[in-house]
Description:
Distance between the termini: 39 Å
Radius of gyration: 21 Å
Low-confidence stretches: none
Oligomer: single chain
Largest sheet: 9 strands, mixed
Strand order of the largest sheet: 11-10-9-8-4-7-6-5-12
Helix content: 25-40%
Amino acid sequence: TYEELLDLVDAVAIATPLRTHFALAKQALEAGKHVVIEKPMAASTQEALELTKLAERSNLTLAVDHTFLFTGAVMKVEEVVNKGDIGNLWYYDSQRVNLGLFQHDTNVIWDLAPHDLSIMMEIVKEAPCRVHAHGAIHTDVGHCDMAWLHFLFPSGLVANCHVSWLSPVKVRRIVIAGSAKMVVYDEMDVVEKVRIFDKGIDQYYEPDNVGKAKIQYRIGDVYAPHIDNTEALQLLVDNFLKAIEEDQKVAVDGYEGARVIRVLEACDESLAKGGAPVDIEWPEELKGTQK
C-alpha cells in the first residue's frame, strides 16, 4: 500500500491522475518525505500553495516536474533570449498538438499547456497579466479538446499558445520574434531543434515623408547552435537529489508549479466566458517570486 511504501523510502515521485496529486503529496509530506510531482502539481492554486507551505514548514524538498525546463533546447533558447541576441521581444508563439490522448478528468489546456506555460515564463522572465481563451468540445468526454490561448504581459509582450488533441500530426514548436533576430524551437526535429534566424524588418523614413515608416526586410544567415542532449528527466532527478542532500533550493519549486496553475485557472475562466479577457490576479505568495 501507499502507506507501507512511505515507511520504506525517503522521497517519492508522484505520477498519477491529477485529481489524486494533492492528497498523495500531502500524505507524503506529512510523513516527512521529500516529493517530486508531475505537472500540473495540483488541481488548484490553493492546493499547490498549501503543499508548498507544508514542505517549507517541514524543511522538505518539493519539486515540480516541468521536464522541458531541463532540456538542452529550452536552456539554449533561454540563453539566447536573455543575452539579448534577438533584441527586444516582439511576440511569442507556441503550438502543442497531436491526436489524443483524451483525458477524462481534465481538459486539453490542463493536459498540454503546462509545458508551454512553464517554458514561456522561464524564457521571458515574466508572468502574464491577461488571457483570452477560446476552445471547443467535440466529444461526449465533456472536456475542451482544442484551445487557443492569447496572453498579454506587463511589458507589452503578446504570446499565443495553441493546444489540441485533435490534430492529425504531432507538433511541438515555439517561435520567438525579436527586433534583431528570431528563434524557432522544434522539439520534433531530431537534428536541429533550435534555429536562430538573422531575419526581420527595419524601419526607415524618406525625407519627404517623415511621418510614415517604410519597411525594409532583412534576410540573413540561419544558425543551429549545439544542444546538450543529456536526458532532461535525469537532470531533474539530479537537481532534486542535490537539493535534498545539500539542503539547497530546488530548480523548479512549488511556487513555480502554483504560478502555472494560476494561469490555467484564468484560462478556464476566460473559456467559460466565451473568450472574454480575464485579468490574472496573483496571490500575495506568488507576487515577486518570478525569476
